Amino acid sequence: MARMLEKYRQEIRPAMLEKFGYKNRMAVPQMTKIVVSMGVGRAVDNRKILDIVAKDLSTITGQKALLTRAKISVSGFKLRQDMPIGCLVTLRGRRMYEFFDRLVSVVIPRIRDFRGLNPEGFDGRGNYNMGLTEQIVFPEIKIDEIEFVQGMNITFVIRGGSDEESLELLRMFGMPFRR
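Structure (tokenized):
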């Protein structure tokens, strides 16, 4: 079993039950999925860039990346409808908790000039979004093999919680938020 899932069941859920006074343990907020996405604007000019980014994302998450396509045409960006412009991976279950464990314990401490995550990245429904400016903070990516630095967006989808409850859940998991 994943270490973070065990921590949730043994420590976090009982602490949240006590702190927020839930009547049922199923009412405690729980992370349901993590979505990791990379938008690649340069893919309009060179399709091979998208293949490289998808390979990097698959290496980071341990799951095959799905190509995302443009919904509309935008002439100013030389973008046509259904043109591939990014990739994403949706993680659930054991893989989600293993990725989250690596993110909290290995990746976030490797970020340069890190002063804590922004606690205002919540969307009003309890989901949290954060961005990374470069993929080289992941230990799976070899720095000398990458051709260009690419950022990514990570979304934590949390079921059954307000922003305050979700913030507390992520803090208990060990996410370093700014005070």
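The first strand starts at residue 30 and ends at 39. The mean pLDDT is 85.
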